[in-house]
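Build the 3D complex.
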Amino acid sequence: MRNQTKLNVSHAPFWHDGGSICTRSVHIMLAALIAIIPGLMRYGMPAVGVISLSVSSAIFWEILMNLAMKRPIATEDGNAAVIGLIFGMLLPATMPWWAVITGTFVAIVIGKQIYGGIGGNPFNPTVIGVAILMVAWKSHFDFDEALLNYEFNFTMLYPIAALKNFGVSVLKNYNTTDLLMGNQIGGIGSSCGIALIIGGAYLMLRGFIRWEISLSFIAGVIITAYLFNLSNPEHYAGPVFHLLTGYTLIGIFFLATEDSSSPVNFIPMLIYGLGCGILTILIRNIGQYADGVILAVLLMNLVNPLVDKIRPKALGKV
Amino acid sequence: MIKRSFLGLIKPRLQYDMLDGSTTAPEQIPASSVIVLFLPNMKRKNMPPVLKTGDAVKKGQQLFSCQGTNEEFVVSPASGTISSIEPFIGGFGKTYDKISIDVSQDQTVDANVDNLKKAPSLSTLQKVLANIPGNLPVDAMANTDITINTIVVNCAEADLQVTTSQLIVKSKIEDIKEGVKVIKKATNVPNVSLAVPEHLQSAVASIGLNIKKVSLDYPSADPKLLMKDAFGTVVTAGKNCEDHGTLFISAEAVANVGNAYKTGNLPVQKMVTVINKDGSKKMVSALIGTPVKDVLSFLKIKVNENDRIIFGGPMKGTAIFSFDQPVMCDTDGIIIQDKDDIPEISDYPCINCGECVRICPANVPVNLLIRFLEAGQYENAQIMYDLDSCIECGLCSYVCVSKMPVYQYITLAKHELAQIRTAEANNA
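Done.
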């Protein structure tokens, strides 16, 4: 009988460290939830609606594309859900349903699937979705207008837009603690600084995102904003304000760190992160748009393949 | 199986296993009634084979694959009668004659072995000691195209979990000393060094050779990494250590060479680390050619359907498919892996997480390389993405988030390219 026992035969190595795409997605979503929950509590059921619709429509588009392209259904890796969730975090709570569905369509179909699915996308799908919505329906991304019907006990002006429109004088309406604790209006999951930092730190420590990108992004924002502020404090806000407002923190921990569209070597990661940070502030301070994170990340995604060519010499290469 | 650490920032620290402080003598596997030898026959082509069923073989006899050429042979570790000869296909299409020998009660020794009583010479090493436990690299020693000026006795383990070399160093230091003398005399190589794991330094101090420290972190005992770290020579991609004049010989082979010349007998007992499903470890000593089923039944290890038996270690070993496959001269370890512990492999695409790039000890851009390998563009992979720099440690597959068989793709590509080169050379 013994000779009939069939053995499992395969190629080395016979061990695996146990990591998987699904685990990564689950932990990224958990970290994102830390930042989403304060948003849900603040904006109530409309926010729950936007987030739920965003996640479910992203998964729906993924399944639809898998079927259309005759590929196995790939939703169980959680990537579509992550894209949907982060997309939802960036939106105001009052985003109309059709805009959410269109956005996730752009993110999943144009941002990811037409490049061959997970791992093939040159741009962060979420960022593509948001960028196109921002251009298409600008007014829906005007947080002051979108959140008009809410009443809170803090300044009801979207900080980064207020800075653009009214100059440094508005800074006195905001204090750092409020901004950090999420007492500012903004996207559902992108305004509570402390929660984003906790989530991001968790992801970095667990190795689910690359700390080099996030930390150099922060450095890029701080250095550039500081230099602007130093050169003309009358015109330009300080680094802390820039760090805690708009999409900066969510960009640092959730947008710039998307696997496929960011570099993997050490020096390229630093360049990429710094580039994101510098471009963000440049766009905010001297560009036309109020918030530069989305475009900064897109631009750096574009140069990623080029930057990632800077790599250590392989062993014995001549 | 060692899993990812909770804090992913800390890279998985895979370390070679250390042998327990108390060196226990290995358990002796009783002699099998039938032993199995693999005789390579790639060069036989249409020549008539020498061996046939019913032939008597002596211990130490050279068994040739065909008449006329003496390139392919195997040295029989025991005397007996050939009971069957079957074709056998090994990894990457290598063909062998699988020779089963009914071992006789009284062992007759071939005249070949008497050479061991004469002064050491390269031809004796080649003819008599070609298949001694530890896999003496006789072909490289005899190759006149390369000049060897340094021999390194590698006392470090070839793979994780295995502790064979350490036991040899601890228990057979005198044999190693003798073996170094013999090899020096036979090959006329002036420099001999020892590559030794840190914790065994005191054990080898008495040999009085140039000692190089080897870290316990996997894969620092790899010859190419040792060349870089200990000897300061970077092996050119696509070449091996011998091309740079350095020959690595395992401690076990050296000890057995020493023992052979000291006693005048052919060493045939292979030291094997057997690792059971629960990770428990046993050191055994088995006659070369002992089928793995005899080792398992002696140790009372039950292997179920779909379990895996690995010859070698968990990172670089070979999974075997038959219980008849024998302990060979390079079988340092036998690992039995339960079917529930076998990690799955997927055909998912690379998600570009970069884990492999950051763990690769040879700085190979694995994330780009794998895209070319998946598409079968092996030549581009070789020219642009450093396929040849790979030292084949298996860490890329170990950490792959997509669970891609990265290391398998790499070995496949290397094999395919080698085949193309051979075909080109033959048709030139």
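DSSP finds 14 helices and no strands in chain A.
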